Fold this sequence. Notes:
Blueprint: H1 2-13, H2 25-29, E1 37-45, E2 68-80, E3 88-91, E4 94-103, E5 106-124, E6 130-140, E7 146-152, E8 155-160, E9 165-168, E10 171-172
Antiparallel strand pairs: 1-5, 2-3, 2-4, 4-8, 4-9, 5-6, 5-7, 9-10
Amino acid sequence: MKKITALLFALCATVTHAELQTLDNDALQAINGQAGADLSLMLNLNQTSNGIFDNGSGGVCENVEFCHIGLAINKRFVQADTTKPSGWAENSDSGNKLWLVFKGVQGTLNIQKMGLDGADLKYLDKSNTEIIKPAIQLSFSAAQPILIRNFGFNALSIEQDNFTSSTTTQGSS
């Protein structure tokens, strides 16, 4: 009797009903949501528990090439050009993407509160047509600042991809 009761209870507990409906693009654009998220994040980058750079034998940064952070700046490309002394010409639409690379990074970053919200990004393309794209909006509070401790790097360089990228009116490809 107990087994039958447990089985009936389990079957009743798993019955669900949802009124899920498909929405087209117009219906989705008409919806305004106001729910964001508050995040906190602590990054201990390549350190031991006592805050020392972990590049010793067996450490996470014994091979420093594994301890890099690269930042790609928007629309910064170069293309091969033999007429230039450097062999490269600047371009804002396509080519090899340039990166700002921090090597041998270590330290602690404590982001106590970061607001994550959605926003509409409006801009004009080359033909002066307004384009609206969804974007992420990050916010920070002065009451809960970002704490940076013992943060540093061994070297800084500008490097480029070994493949070609390009941008279009719709973004990067």
